[in-house]
Every structure is written in structure tokens, then in C-alpha cells.
Amino acid sequence: MNADLNMTYVTLGGHVEIHRYRYLYFVIMLTAYILLICFNVSIVCLIVIHKNLHEPMYIFIAALLLNSLLFSTNIYPKLLIDFLSEKQIISYQACLFQAFMFYFLSSSEFLLLSAMAYDRYVSICKPLKYQIIMRTTTVSFLLIFAWLVPACYVVVPIALNINSKLCSFTLKGIFCNNSASKLLCVSSRALSIYGVILLFNLGLFPTLFIIFTYTKIIIIAYQSCGDVRRKAAQTCLPHLLVLINYSILITYDVVIVKLESDFSKTARFIMTLQVIIYNPLCNPIIYGLKMKDISKHLKRLFVKKS
């Protein structure tokens, strides 16, 4: 506790052998951060620049990659500073803000994937009504909904915990997430129930909606001609890969607090690094390789540079 600034600091105790490997950690994470910035920004810029990519599907992809970039920026700069610092600490208020951004952007990813699934469903299952349904106003509404609703949900527990009394000042992690609740002297049953509701509304239900829409798409594609099947495979496979990848990582993040005693510190550290590296780095790679139009523009870009 810093009496002069009236600031409470929390120690991030999830680092492993940081004094020995700090420069190795720093180089690896800095390289990953630079790569994900380059990959995500490149594809977003391509979508913005080229008019033939100004379609709902590509707009949602740009929003998803921007979301991943914000997610990474919420974690990487602080993490890089910690690797080079003697003490890995963060103020409790900043910790709550980081946790808010982490779950706000994580939830937004599920809703953006849901919007993309709906777009593909309308495109493949109701092609004649696509232009009528997926208008600019519809796309704008879905984007606003995907960011505004999670923010309103996640801000509630964060706001209620700002002035809560802490009995522990060491966090078993390398950044602030749901494990911050372990710092409180008294755990609120109401907030625990609210957390389950939040998990269902922003995680499970969107996932079930995505599974339902892609099941319908697969059925329609199977009953249709080869062109429809090819279109379904080209546009839906990347979304499914991203969903599976992200669902596994978020499941780990939710479960780790409940089973923290069963995980070694090293295993927790390695898994946490995977959470913050894989998804932001894999998303642009998956869409860059699997989406034909994006891949075509990327090839033209690199050929010109060569």
C-alpha cells in the first residue's frame, strides 16, 4: 500500500524464472507482438483499401482482427515492461481495468464470430434475400451490438469490486483476469452467479448459435451443387477454425481458477502465454491463407514489393 498516493499494488506472481530468462521472454514476446501487429494491420488495411472487400463478411473479419489487436495491446506492453523490471507489480485499479478489457474483448470475439456465422448463413441458405437482410444498417447494428453489450455486462462486476477490501496482494498469473477475484477478502455469491450468467450469455449461447448456423449451412451445402459446397467450405472453414481455437483457450482461462491447485506454476505460465499468443497471431494467418480474395491481394502486395 502506498500511503502517499493512496494506491494499492498487486504482485503478478505467475512468472517463472524471470530473473534468469527475462531477456529470452522479452525477445520472444516482442517478436510475437510485432508479428501480430504486422499481420493484423496488413489485412485490415487491405480490406479498407480495396473496394471489392467492402462486403459484410470482410468487414466482420476486419472488426475481428482489430478486436484481436486491442486484446493484445491490453496485455503485451505491460508484460514486456514486467520482463525487464525487478518487481512485477500493477496497481489494483489498473489490474481491474486490464481484466475488464480482457473479458470485454474476449466476449466481443464470440459475438463477432456469431455475426460472421449469421452472415454466412444468410449468404448460403438465403442468397436471394442477402442484399435485403445484410444491409449497411444491419452490419453496423451487429458491430455495435458485439462491442457494446459485452462492455455493459463486464463493467458491472469490475465497478462493484473497485472499493472491495483485499486480503491477498499476490496474483497467480502474469496479467489480470478472473483470478483477481481470489484477492478479495469476501467472495460475493451474487457476483459468482452473475459471472455464470455472463459466461452463458456471452460465451456459451453465441457458441451454440454458431454451431446451429453452421449445421444448417452444412445441410444446405450437402443438398446443393458443387459450387455451393465449395463456397461453404472456403468461407466457413476459417471461421470454424478460429472458433475452435478460441473456445479451447477461453475454456482454459475459465477453468484454471477452479483448478489452480492442480496446475504447476510452470504449466500455468506456458498455457497463459498460449492464450495471448495463439489466437491474435493465428487469426490473420487463417484468414490470410484460407480467404481467397484476401490471399489474392496479399500475394499481389508481396509480389509488387519483391
UniProtKB/TrEMBL annotation:
Pfam families: 7tm_4 (PF13853). It comes from Oreochromis aureus. It comes from the Eukaryota. It is a multi-pass membrane protein. The chain crosses the membrane at residues 23-49, 56-76, 96-118, 139-160, 191-215, 236-257, 269-289. Residues 39-287 form the G-protein coupled receptors family 1 profile domain. Belongs to the G-protein coupled receptor 1 family. The keyword Transmembrane applies. It is found in: Cell membrane. Keywords: Cell membrane, Disulfide bond, G-protein coupled receptor, Glycoprotein, Membrane, Olfaction, Receptor, Sensory transduction, Transducer, Transmembrane, Transmembrane helix. The keyword Transmembrane applies. GO terms for molecular function: G protein-coupled receptor activity; odorant binding; olfactory receptor activity. GO terms for cellular component: plasma membrane. This is Olfactory receptor.
